[in-house]
Design brief:
Layout: H1 2-6, H2 8-32, H3 47-65, H4 69-88, H5 95-98, H6 101-116, H7 123-129
Helix pairs in contact: 2-3, 2-6, 3-4, 4-6
Length: 131
């Protein structure tokens, strides 16, 4: 067990990086139709979806780098909570039926990062180590 504990900061970094890359994909689909257009997204995007897409791309990129991690994670966790209630909750009580599982998971993974920080592999950690 002790050998696993040593890896905790690195695995936390992996969780942050993978979650942020998946999150960025949603914004890239809305803004640039990459790797494909987001299903159901109107074109052109209304201002609220445009703001969400920019947050997803820019905030996701900052999380990938581990830069301003806690504040970005707090902002993005809130964004996903709002997105869940605006876009999904009204369709059904059950997330598996309303399509909101990703929004819930992103919200809670980002909330977790608010409390844990970015992990060992991050710009934030490197800045903290400087004398």
């Amino acid at each position: 067990m002790e050998r696993l504990h040593v890896w905790t900061p690195r695995v936390l970094s992996l969780l942050r990086i993978i979650a942020a890359l998946l999150f960025m994909e949603h914004g890239l689909m809305k803004l640039f139709h990459f790797p494909a257009a987001q299903p159901g997204a109107p074109d052109p995007l209304p201002p609220l979806l445009l703001a969400a897409a920019v947050l997803e791309v820019v905030g996701g990129a900052l999380l990938v780098l581990g830069l301003f991690t806690r504040s970005m994670a707090f902002l993005l966790s809130g964004q996903m909570a709002v997105a869940y209630f605006l876009a999904h909750a009204g369709k059904s009580f059950w997330p598996a039926l309303n399509g909101g599982e990703a929004a819930i998971l992103f919200s809670f993974v980002f909330l977790y990062l608010v409390f844990t920080g970015p992990g060992e592999w991050s710009v934030d950690a490197q800045v903290r180590k400087r004398p």
